[in-house]
């Protein structure tokens, strides 16, 4: 089947069976390998992307479901200057160790910060609760999102 | 010591690329013609393959290779990525005509797509003769137990006790002093058995390997490994290929925690690649990762302590029964570490340690952060608490009285090594006493210890308690491990650092860059780090045994010192100044006469102008000792006596890891290890059905901590200076995973008066224990 997808602001046409996972289409057909696969069952959030601004796990979205929606991946967010403080905060705070969960964490954090520019700690905990990290113990990730939120909101 | 780069929170060299998703992991490599490799796993715990017919799978369109035991070399080896000769038994084949646990390999296919590969697997006809299985470590060596390794090839390559006919994968015993006499001399005795349970690493990136043959006909493996050089050696051995025909490249690794110190995917992926004549990738699913990779060895540990009424220990006896599962990977060494990384903590003249490692038809043990010390610490730290109770002492005071100090040694160091006697060492840096005091203050120990005990006697649904544990680990394996690094100077005055060391997410590339930059008088960003490529970098044993900062760091320091010598020499030649006393500073050579020469001038002179040569140095470091980091951990818990639920209210980890080369990265290691340990203590659990299948096979069932599960964790660095380490550093990565199980167990006891001697402390287990105790 042929699908026209709206990805990171561009229309792209892909050939795939309707049951293909959005995750595989992104990684294998479009070479967008920033989105990772950690479990393939919606538990770890490493494949998180935005669909019409909502955080979804790309392993649980079929390509046929993605058609007609705006999909943003880590590559799309990485190209947006407004998120620069978020990227910096992750690195400065030591929120990144192996980094495999990072693109998904960034997507979750960006979705949260768009809704709640200065989130409380409880809101961050909830906003990132679908993303697993085995390295950091989360504290530095939470701190990074807090710091990024303050910087983005204050425009510094 | 004044340092410019060491001790600073330098930005992780690969941090931004990882955050933005541009750094490549193995699964991100796009290789033309790449096939998907899939494995057929055994549904039986113990069976002989009577007949296997892959003809229908081979005939399927899009299938390029199908391998059964008949198609691969029958070469016995170990998957344990350890130094050669390995202390793990040679008991594994790429594929065998026998399966030894649910999840063992039966066959492998390489096909155009995952769907075709899966269909091909379903077309392989296997006739099993189901054999009786050993599903309990305690039953493994009983008379008449089924023999799991009855193949004649199974053997050990170093002189250690090995008796596969009795399912004994290893056995070791050491004694110092006279334990029986010590126990007689004791006035108080504790003797209890503790079980440290199975666990899985759950690195976010599952095991994944890509194999291809390059344009020179050499086999290239891009793989998520902690041990690229061992992987090269083991693949060469298992396939009967020359080492020179193989290149192993480690890209970014999505965590390992020991699971990737095992070489079990590389050889079969390589075999598929060679059979198909096409590149092949095998990537484990999460389910495969949980049921068919490696685990923390389950151990049953009896600790017997004899003590005088004032608390002095007269004897320590530790008996370990370790379940290595179907294969003996890391069996002996993990079990040995349950003693060698725990027993030296306590002053005692009479110590006996015995470990029996048994085969079962259960998931395979392996290296897992903590490496036996996790299991040993649970038993010992619980037993010390039980002793304190019997002595009527505050468990903190008892530990303060008994713990090892700087300038002291333990006879265990010399007696108990990894498959051979250990190496004697005197503790040169130990701030364990301070760790205990500052940690106790942070949790408010004295007040809570008395207060909650008084509370315990009263009724009420929620009960709080505090518990503690003291810990040690090592820094590399002495007289075994070696790491090397090369540094070369570029014409702009920057440097390439080529190191065998393996960054699996810990940040070691950054740590090594900081060490090189410190010696060379440049910024960390002037060091271009390239690591873990068997063609391009010098040897290193890899990332395990808490060795990278300490061992590989010293190798980098040596290489940098050699380069510094050459830079000064060239600078002196070109400037006419005297080399003596010159220092490197801000990318310049600064001579005693005040003259300065930039690195760019030095490099250009050396490369283009006179007596040209490449400014370059290689350093190797071989460890003579393994200085332990120390830690004191404290947990405060709240137990719901109606539901059995345990909530960690606060956790304190006070850690002496020597100098922190990078405080942000070092603390990140401690925070991560603590949370991993809390998951292990509270809910991470292997549950088996009656046929030996591990049923907690997804991240929904095998739950690991998420953001909602983390308590307040306070990490306190208690600095010491380790003379033998790079800029005073010791290791930090493993130690703190060992604390939560005993500290939380002790806190539950403090809260409820009920002692749990096996984890995890799930609500059900705690509830049952409370009911049994009538509380």
Key attributes of the depicted protein:
heterodimer; A: 156 residues; alpha+beta; Ubiquitin-like (UB roll); DNA polymerase, domain 1; 2 domains; 5-stranded mixed beta sheet; 5 strands; globular; B: 775 residues; Aldehyde Oxidoreductase, domain 4; Aldehyde Oxidoreductase, domain 3; 7-stranded mixed beta sheet; 6-stranded mixed beta sheet; 28% helix
Write the layout of secondary structure elements.
The complex is a heterodimer of chains A (156) and B (775).
Chain A: E1 2-7, E2 10-15, H1 22-29, E3 48-51, E4 54-57, H2 63-66, E5 70-72, H3 74-78, H4 84-92, H5 102-115, H6 121-127, H7 139-154
Parallel strand pairs in A: 1-5
Antiparallel strand pairs in A: 1-2, 3-4, 3-5
Helix pairs in contact in A: 4-7
Chain B: H1 15-19, E1 35-41, E2 47-53, H2 55-59, E3 63-67, E4 98-99, E5 105-111, H3 114-122, E6 125-130, E7 161-163, E8 168-176, H4 179-185, E9 188-196, E10 208-213, E11 219-223, H5 228-239, E12 246-249, H6 266-276, E13 280-283, H7 286-292, E14 295-296, E15 298-307, E16 313-325, H8 331-340, E17 351-359, E18 365-366, H9 373-391, H10 395-402, H11 411-415, H12 432-443, H13 445-457, E19 462-472, E20 482-489, E21 495-499, H14 508-520, E22 527-531, H15 548-575, E23 583-585, E24 588-590, E25 596-598, H16 599-609, E26 616-622, E27 630-640, E28 646-656, H17 663-682, E29 712-717, H18 740-752, H19 763-772
Parallel strand pairs in B: 1-13, 11-12, 14-18, 16-17, 21-22, 28-29
Antiparallel strand pairs in B: 1-5, 2-4, 2-6, 3-5, 7-8, 8-17, 9-15, 10-11, 10-13, 15-16, 19-27, 20-21, 20-26, 23-24, 24-25, 27-28
Helix pairs in contact in B: 5-6, 8-9, 9-18, 14-15, 15-16, 17-18
Summarize the structure.
The complex is a heterodimer of chains A (156) and B (775). Chain A has 156 residues and is of the alpha+beta class.
Assign an overall shape of chain B. globular
Write the CATH homologous superfamily of the largest domain in chain B.
Answer: Aldehyde oxidase/xanthine dehydrogenase, a/b hammerhead
Q: How much helix, percentage-wise, in residues of chain B?
A: 25-40%
Q: Predict the CATH topology of the largest domain in chain A.
A: Ubiquitin-like (UB roll)
User: Would you identify the CATH architecture of the largest domain in chain A?
Assistant: Roll
Could you tell me the mean pLDDT of chain B?
97
> Whole-number average pLDDT of chain A?
97
């Amino acid at each position: 089947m042929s699908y026209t997808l709206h990805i990171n602001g561009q229309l792209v046409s892909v050939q795939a069976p309707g049951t293909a996972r959005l995750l595989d289409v992104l990684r294998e057909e479009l070479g967008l390998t920033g989105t990772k696969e950690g479990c393939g069952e919606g538990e770890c959030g490493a494949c998180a992307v935005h669909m019409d601004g909502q955080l979804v796990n790309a392993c649980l979205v079929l390509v046929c479901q993605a058609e007609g929606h705006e999909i943003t991946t880590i590559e799309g967010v990485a190209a947006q200057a407004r998120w620069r403080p978020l990227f910096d905060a992750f690195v400065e705070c030591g929120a990144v160790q192996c980094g495999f969960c990072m693109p998904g964490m960034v997507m979750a954090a960006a979705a949260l910060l768009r809704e709640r520019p200065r989130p409380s700690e409880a809101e961050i905990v909830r906003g990132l609760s679908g993303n697993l990290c085995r390295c950091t113990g989360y504290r530095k990730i939470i701190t990074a999102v807090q710091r990024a939120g303050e910087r983005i909101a204050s425009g510094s | 010591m004044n340092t410019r780069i060491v001790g600073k929170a330098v930005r992780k060299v690969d941090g931004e690329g990882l955050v933005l998703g541009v750094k490549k992991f193995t699964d991100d490599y796009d290789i033309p013609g790449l096939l998907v490799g899939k494995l057929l796993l055994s549904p039986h715990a113990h069976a002989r393959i009577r007949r296997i017919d892959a003809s229908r799978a081979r005939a399927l369109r899009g299938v390029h290779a199908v391998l059964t035991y008949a198609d691969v070399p029958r070469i016995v080896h170990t998957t344990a990525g350890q130094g050669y000769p390995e202390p793990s038994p040679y008991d594994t084949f790429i594929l065998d005509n026998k399966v030894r646990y649910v999840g063992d390999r039966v066959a492998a296919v390489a096909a155009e797509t995952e769907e075709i590969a899966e269909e091909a697997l379903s077309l392989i006809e296997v006739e099993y003769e189901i054999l009786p299985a050993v599903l309990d470590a305690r039953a493994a060596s009983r008379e008449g137990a089924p023999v799991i390794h009855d193949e004649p090839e199974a053997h050990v390559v170093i002189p250690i006790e090995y008796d596969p006919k009795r399912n004994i994968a290893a056995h070791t015993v050491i004694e110092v002093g006279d334990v029986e006499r010590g126990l007689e001399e004791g006035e108080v005795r504790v003797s209890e058995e503790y079980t440290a349970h199975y666990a899985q690493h759950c690195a976010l990136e599952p095991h994944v390997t890509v194999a291809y043959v390059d344009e020179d006909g050499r086999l290239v493996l891009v793989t998520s490994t902690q041990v690229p050089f061992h992987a090269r050696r083991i693949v060469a051995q298992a396939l009967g290929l020359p080492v020179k025909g193989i290149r192993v490249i480690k890209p970014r690794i999505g965590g390992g925690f020991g699971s990737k110190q095992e070489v079990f995917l590389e050889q079969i992926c390589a075999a598929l690649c060679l059979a198909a004549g096409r590149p092949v990738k095998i990537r484990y699913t999460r389910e495969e990762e949980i049921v068919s990779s490696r685990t923390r060895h389950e151990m049953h540990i009896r600790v017997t302590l004899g003590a005088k009424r004032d608390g002095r220990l007269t004897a320590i006896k530790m008996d370990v029964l370790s379940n290595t599962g179907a294969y003996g990977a890391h069996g002996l060494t993990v079990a040995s570490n349950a003693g060698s990384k725990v027993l030296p903590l306590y002053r005692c003249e009479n110590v006996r340690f015995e470990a029996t490692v048994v085969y079962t038809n259960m998931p395979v043990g392996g290296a897992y952060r903590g490496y036996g010390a996790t299991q040993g610490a649970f038993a010992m730290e619980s037993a010390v608490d039980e002793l304190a109770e019997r002595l009527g002492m505050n468990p903190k005071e008892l530990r303060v009285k008994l713990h090892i100090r700087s300038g002291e040694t333990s006879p265990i160091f010399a007696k108990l090594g990894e498959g051979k006697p250990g190496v004697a060492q005197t503790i040169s840096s130990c701030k364990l006493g301070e760790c205990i005091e500052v940690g106790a203050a942070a949790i408010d120990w004295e007040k809570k210890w008395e207060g909650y005990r008084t509370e315990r006697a009263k009724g009420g649904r929620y009960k709080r308690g505090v518990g503690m544990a003291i810990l040690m680990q090592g820094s590399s394996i002495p007289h075994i491990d070696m790491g090397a690094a090369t540094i070369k100077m570029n014409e702009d005055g920057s440097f390439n650092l080529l190191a065998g060391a393996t960054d699996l997410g810990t940040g070691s590339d950054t740590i090594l860059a900081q060490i090189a930059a410190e010696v060379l008088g440049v910024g960390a960003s002037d060091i271009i780090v390239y690591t873990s490529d068997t063609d391009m970098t010098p040897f290193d044993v890899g990332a395990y045994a808490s060795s990278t900062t300490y061992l590989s760091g010293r190798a980098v320091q040596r290489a940098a010192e050699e380069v510094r010598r050459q830079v000064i020499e060239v600078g002196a030649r070109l400037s006419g100044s005297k080399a003596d006393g010159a220092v490197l500073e801000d990318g310049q050579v600064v001579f005693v006469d005040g003259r300065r020469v930039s690195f760019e001038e030095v490099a250009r002179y050396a490369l283009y102008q006179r007596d040209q040569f490449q400014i370059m140095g290689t350093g190797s470091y071989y460890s003579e000792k393994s200085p332990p980091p120390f830690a004191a951990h404290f947990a405060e818990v709240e137990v719901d006596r109606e539901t059995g639920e345990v909530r960690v209210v606060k956790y304190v980890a006070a850690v002496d890891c020597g100098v922190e080369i990078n405080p942000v990265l070092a603390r990140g290691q401690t925070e991560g290890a603590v949370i991993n340990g809390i998951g292990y203590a509270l809910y991470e659990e292997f549950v088996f059905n009656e046929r030996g299948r591990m049923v907690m096979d997804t991240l929904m069932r095998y739950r690991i901590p998420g953001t909602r599960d983390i308590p307040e964790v306070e990490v306190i660095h208690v600095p010491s200076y380790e003379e033998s380490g790079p800029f005073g550093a010791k290791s930090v990565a493993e130690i703190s995973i060992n604390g939560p199980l005993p500290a939380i167990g002790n806190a539950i006891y403090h809260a409820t008066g009920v002692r749990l001697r096996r984890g995890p402390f799930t609500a059900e287990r705690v509830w049952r224990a409370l009911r049994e105790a009538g509380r």
